[in-house]
């Protein structure tokens, strides 16, 4: 409300789009993780959303971090108070300089899925603890990764033999069922393959001690995924405790998706001119909604998730005509929503029902905007990135989040 007033008064920042990050939600996701997967340590996939407060909170909760580049490793270590052993360099295809630098920084655990990578590691970081990333079925996921990464099972014997020949320390297996996995049953086959890889490695003289079950966890399917995963681990790794096999995962989306919402301001509107109806009969294609809204974030910004992460977003009215309350009797009409850039690919929503009373200056809200949004946003056409406003959540959780963050800060000071 205040923002709209300030914007009307000429305050330039008042109408900017912004995220609200609920750290309490991240905390709750962690509690959910620990309750369902108590023996699997999460290594948060930094690429999903490298927000500094999310990283701090997860560090304070004892999570590790999955980094894919020098930049991500530095970002995590620069926080302070995080030992490099809490990082897995989970990119199977790394530049020589990145491997060398990881070694310098004390990051030893890293993945590989091809023989060339073994030669590179032997040259640049021979003390590394290597994790073999195997190929698993990713056909049940929004973003398939198998096209690019993962050693087919048929290549595993030759890869471990080559590692042995080079005198390298291979410590375990990882996989990724694909990001945004909508059929958790795939974890079962992936664990079976991991077991096979453990056995192949044992025949080559390795005793693996790390099982990394990757990411892919979807918020609403998490409990089911956890169940499938634990059943398969129980079946194929019944002796994991006696053999000191550590199980870790690399969740990204699961931790942050629901924690961030975006508020965007309607900066322009194209609608039939009401008294004459002149624009109804325009030359625009007849299958297009007749009302078009233009908001101040788009697919070149936060909504890049529509293009890169195959998401469909669902707008709702945050405020209309100075009120947070929109009466249910308010008539709606089919509308489209567009981003601010001059490119026509910049469409946020091609068809949605919105109140006909919406006007320039009103606000739209979008939930589930925490995963693969901010991190890949550009400033194309001179539009700035939307800033983040933080909340600790409500009730008991807020207090616990505050305690965790304060405790972590104290620990940082001492170390
Ligand atoms: C992207 C990625 C993840 C995170 O995946 P989510 O689906 O967001 O959980 C984990 N591990 C690796 C290697 C990745 O590339």
TrEMBL record:
Alphabetically ordered keywords of this record: Lyase, Pyridoxal phosphate
Active site annotation, chain numbering: 342
All residue ranges annotated as the Orn/DAP/Arg decarboxylase 2 N-terminal domain in the record: 23-257
Cofactor(s) of this protein: pyridoxal 5'-phosphate
InterPro entries xrefs: Ala_racemase/Decarboxylase_C, De-COase2_N, De-COase2_pyr-phos_BS, Orn/DAP/Arg_de-COase, Orn_de-COase, PLP-binding_barrel
GO MF annotation: an example: ornithine decarboxylase activity
Taxonomic superkingdom: Eukaryota
Transferase as UniProt keyword: no
PROSITE patterns, per database record: ODR_DC_2_1
Pathway the protein acts in: Amine and polyamine biosynthesis; putrescine biosynthesis via L-ornithine pathway; putrescine from L-ornithine: step 1/1
Any GO BP annotation: putrescine biosynthetic process from arginine, via ornithine
Cellular component aspect of the GO annotation: cytoplasm
Modified residues (N6-(pyridoxal phosphate)lysine): 47
Pfam families: Orn_Arg_deC_N
Catalysis performed (reactions): L-ornithine + H(+) = putrescine + CO2
Enzyme Commission code: 4.1.1.17
Assembly and interaction partners: Homodimer. Only the dimer is catalytically active, as the active sites are constructed of residues from both monomers.
Sequence similarity: Belongs to the Orn/Lys/Arg decarboxylase class-II family.
This protein's name: ornithine decarboxylase
Native species: Lentinula raphanica
């Amino acid at each position: 409300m205040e923002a709209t007033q300030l914007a009307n008064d000429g305050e330039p920042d008042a109408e900017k789009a912004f995220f609200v990050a609920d750290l309490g939600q991240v905390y709750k996701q962690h509690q959910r993780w620990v309750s369902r997967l108590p023996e699997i340590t999460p290594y948060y996939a930094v690429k999903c959303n490298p927000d500094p407060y999310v990283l701090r909170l997860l560090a304070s909760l004892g999570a590790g971090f999955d980094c894919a580049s020098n930049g991500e490793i530095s970002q995590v270590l620069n926080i302070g108070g995080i030992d490099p052993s809490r990082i897995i360099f989970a990119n199977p295809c790394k530049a020589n300089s990145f491997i060398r630098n990881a070694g310098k920084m004390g990051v030893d655990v890293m993945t590989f899925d091809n023989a060339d990578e073994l030669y590179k590691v032997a040259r640049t970081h021979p003390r590394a603890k290597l994790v073999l990333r195997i190929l698993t079925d990713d056909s049940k996921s929004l973003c398939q990764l198998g096209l690019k990464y993962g050693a087919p099972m048929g290549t595993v014997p030759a890869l471990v033999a080559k590692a042995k020949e080079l005198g390298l320390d291979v410590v375990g297996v990882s996989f990724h069922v694909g990001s945004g996995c909508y059929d958790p049953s795939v974890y079962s086959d992936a664990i079976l393959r991991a077991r096979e890889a453990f056995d192949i490695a044992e025949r080559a003289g390795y005793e693996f001690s790390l099982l990394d079950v990757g990411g892919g966890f979807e918020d609403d399917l998490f409990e089911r995924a956890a169940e499938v995963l634990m059943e398969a681990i129980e079946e194929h790794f019944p002796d994991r405790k006696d053999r000191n096999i550590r199980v870790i995962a690399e969740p990204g989306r699961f931790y942050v998706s629901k924690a961030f919402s975006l508020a965007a301001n309607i900066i322009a509107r194209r609608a039939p001119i009401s008294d004459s109806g002149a624009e109804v009969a325009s030359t625009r294609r007849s299958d297009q909604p007749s009302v078009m809204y233009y908001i101040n974030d788009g697919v070149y910004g936060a909504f890049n998730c529509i293009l890169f992460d195959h998401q469909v977003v669902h707008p709702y009215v945050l405020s209309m005509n100075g009120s947070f309350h929109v009466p249910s009797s308010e008539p709606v009409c089919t509308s489209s929503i567009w981003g601010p850039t001059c490119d026509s690919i910049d469409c946020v929503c091609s068809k949605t029902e919105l109140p006909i009373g919406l006007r320039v200056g009103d606000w739209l809200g979008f939930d589930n905007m925490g995963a693969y949004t901010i991190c890949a946003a550009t400033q194309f056409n001179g539009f700035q990135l939307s800033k983040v406003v933080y909340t600790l959540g409500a009730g008991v959780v807020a207090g616990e989040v505050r305690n965790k963050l304060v405790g972590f800060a104290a620990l940082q000071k001492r170390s």
